[in-house]
């Protein structure tokens, strides 16, 4: 609707004659004019109260404004990263995995800062388990033109039981060499392999899952952080051993005692040959550290055999290695004992084990046409229990013990056979079981009748020295395999005079080092211990 201004003038003109011809009646005229203006004022106000009516100055009329609908603003979708940006992010992640930014190391090593075992029984926090704490992870690059990829070297060392629950032991006594697993980094920046998926959580943390048993889908949920020099074990320069009750006064016989510990059963095992009866027997003892219960069993045999015993734990079996035969039984000592002879009869051979494989070290006897026989490394066939040659070193070295860290076999000291006076060997060697490389290293002293046990990057080593009356005739030291350094360690015993001691064996159970020593005055075994976390 619109009203022209000329029409408003017409309304006003109606009252103009009245005003001219009725001048005498001023009051009436004024009243009429007042009324007229009031009418017009009310009319104009009524019309202008509609907010949609405006005065159009161009055509001198009042028009109603029609609102146009607002145009919808559509924000453009953000563009995803380009292929080049994705590739750069992948390479940045790979660089984070492999670049060592700490301690000027030649490689970057990750370790587990927290872990949970997930299996059919539920979820268990295994962060504090010693079998988890020694694991190491090393990433290397194998980039190709079409993908960002690499190899993860997992130093598994001692493993865990994948089907463990809250009421069973998580630790496994098997020791494993490193495994190498290929991986790629996908477009989601995941580090993937059929057995694991890992992602970057922070700049210093990698998290994810690792399948440890495909059949049961048991897996580890892990958080990895970079390992620094402070995270490696340090060789102690002094150890004060404490008395360990209720596992003493067992008879020994001249460096022939086997001694090993189990994280799985939290027990100590000891074995030696007893010549006091016929048929001859090997006595085997198991001491439960928690319950302080001592169990034992006997392995009887006939025929000739030298005295040495060596013990190893593989799965739930205790393996007793003698000089001419090997015996197996449950680690509870309550099963039937199986014994298998092998062709060679080895005198005081050393031994070591990895990947469920036992290796025998030396022990060959002198023959007339070769008074200084070479040192042989043999493997014990797990099916036939025959001995198979692995490597031969053309040198005379006898009564020398060894230990394995990852894939490296370390052998310490020894005696040159038929030397008179005794010629003690002041070197050790490292033999890589994967590639066959051989390297020698120096020892602080010449030692023989050696014994050894590993603790992450350390190997504790003891050996016998030439006899000096009223003086300790043993050596004790620690090899750091990470730094290739050897430290001679001063040790003291709480329950026995060091001048009366022959060290028979060393073993570690849950961060505690146990030492079995023979009291040479009565041929009895004494066991002492030290908490390695206190050093």
Radius of gyration: 44 Å
Query: Overall mean pLDDT score?
Result: 85
Number of helices: 5
> In percent, how much strand structure appears in the residues?
over 45%
* Distance from first to last alpha carbon: 101 Å
Strand order of the largest sheet: 4-3-13-12-11-10-9-6-5
Structure class: mainly beta
Spatial shape: elongated
Structural write-up:
By secondary structure, this protein is mainly beta. A nine-stranded antiparallel sheet has the order 4-3-13-12-11-10-9-6-5, with helices on one face. The chain has a seven-stranded antiparallel sheet with strand order 29-30-31-32-33-34-35, with no helix packed on it. Strands 15, 16, 37, 38 and 39 form a five-stranded antiparallel sheet that branches. Keywords: Membrane, Transmembrane, Transmembrane helix.
Features:
disordered N terminus; single chain; 7-stranded antiparallel sheet; 535 residues; mainly beta; 39 strands; 9-stranded antiparallel sheet
List the helices and strands and how they pair.
Layout: H1 5-13, H2 16-21, H3 26-48, E1 53-56, E2 61-64, H4 83-98, E3 110-119, E4 122-125, H5 130-133, E5 136-141, E6 149-155, E7 157-160, E8 171-176, E9 179-185, E10 190-193, E11 196-202, E12 205-213, E13 218-226, E14 238-240, E15 242-243, E16 250-251, E17 258-262, E18 267-274, E19 280-288, E20 294-301, E21 310-314, E22 317-321, E23 325-330, E24 338-341, E25 350-354, E26 357-361, E27 375-380, E28 387-393, E29 401-405, E30 408-412, E31 425-432, E32 438-455, E33 458-464, E34 474-480, E35 485-488, E36 490-492, E37 501-509, E38 512-519, E39 524-531
Parallel strand pairs: 14-36
Antiparallel strand pairs: 1-2, 3-4, 3-13, 5-6, 6-9, 7-8, 9-10, 10-11, 11-12, 12-13, 15-39, 16-39, 17-18, 18-19, 19-20, 21-22, 22-23, 23-24, 25-26, 26-27, 27-28, 29-30, 30-31, 31-32, 32-33, 33-34, 34-35, 37-38, 38-39
């Amino acid at each position: 609707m619109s009203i022209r201004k000329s029409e408003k003038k017409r309304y006003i003109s109606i009252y103009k004659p009245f005003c001219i011809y009725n001048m005498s009646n001023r009051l009436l005229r004024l009243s009429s004019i007042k009324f007229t203006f009031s009418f017009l004022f009310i009319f104009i106000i009524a019309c202008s109260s509609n907010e949609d009516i405006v005065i159009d100055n161009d055509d001198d009329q009042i028009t109603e404004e029609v609102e146009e609908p607002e145009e919808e603003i559509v924000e453009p979708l953000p563009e995803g990263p380009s292929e080049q940006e994705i590739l750069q992010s992948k390479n940045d992640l790979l660089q984070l995995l492999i670049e060592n930014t700490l301690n000027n190391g030649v490689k970057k090593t990750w370790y587990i800062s927290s872990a949970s075992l997930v299996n059919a029984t539920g979820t268990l926090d295994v962060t504090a388990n010693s079998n988890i704490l020694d694991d190491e992870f090393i990433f290397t690059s194998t980039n190709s033109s079409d993908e960002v990829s690499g190899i993860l070297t997992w130093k598994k060392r001692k493993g865990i039981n994948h089907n463990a629950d809250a009421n069973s032991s998580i630790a496994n006594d098997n020791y494993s060499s490193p495994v190498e697993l290929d991986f790629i980094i996908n477009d989601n920046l995941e580090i993937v392999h059929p057995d694991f998926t890992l992602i970057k959580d922070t700049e210093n943390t990698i998290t994810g899952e690792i399948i440890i048993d495909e059949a049961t889908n048991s897996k580890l949920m892990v958080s990895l952080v970079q390992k620094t020099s402070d995270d490696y074990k340090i060789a102690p320069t002094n150890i004060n051993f404490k008395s360990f009750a209720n596992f003493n006064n067992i008879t020994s016989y001249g460096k022939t005692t086997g001694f090993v510990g189990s994280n799985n059963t939290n027990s100590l095992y000891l074995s030696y040959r007893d010549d006091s009866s016929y048929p001859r027997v090997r006595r085997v003892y198991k001491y439960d550290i928690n319950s302080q219960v001592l169990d034992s069993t006997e392995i009887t045999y006939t025929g000739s055999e030298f005295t040495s015993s060596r013990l190893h734990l593989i799965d739930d079996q205790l393996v007793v290695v003698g000089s001419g035969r090997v015996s197996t039984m449950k680690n509870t000592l309550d099963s039937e004992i199986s014994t298998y002879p092998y062709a060679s009869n080895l005198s005081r051979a050393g031994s070591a084990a990895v990947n469920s494989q036992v290796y025998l070290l030396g022990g060959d006897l002198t023959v007339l046409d070769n008074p200084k026989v070479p040192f042989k490394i043999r493997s014990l066939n797990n099916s036939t229990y025959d001995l198979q040659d692995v490597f031969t070193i053309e040198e005379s070295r006898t009564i020398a013990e060894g230990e394995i860290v990852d894939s490296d076999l370390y052998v310490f000291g020894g005696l040159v056979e038929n030397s008179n006076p005794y010629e003690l060997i002041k070197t050790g060697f490292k033999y890589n079981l994967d590639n066959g490389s051989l390297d020698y290293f120096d020892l602080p002293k010449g030692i023989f009748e050696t014994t050894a046990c590993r603790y992450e990057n350390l190997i504790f080593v003891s050996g016998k020295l030439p006899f000096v009356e009223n003086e300790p005739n043993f050596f004790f030291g620690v090899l750091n395999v990470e730094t290739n350094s050897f430290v001679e360690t001063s040790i003291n015993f709480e329950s026995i005079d060091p001048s009366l001691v022959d060290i028979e064996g060393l073993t570690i159970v849950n961060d505690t080092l146990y030492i079995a020593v023979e009291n040479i005055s009565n041929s009895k075994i004494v066991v002492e211990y030290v908490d390695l976390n206190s050093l």
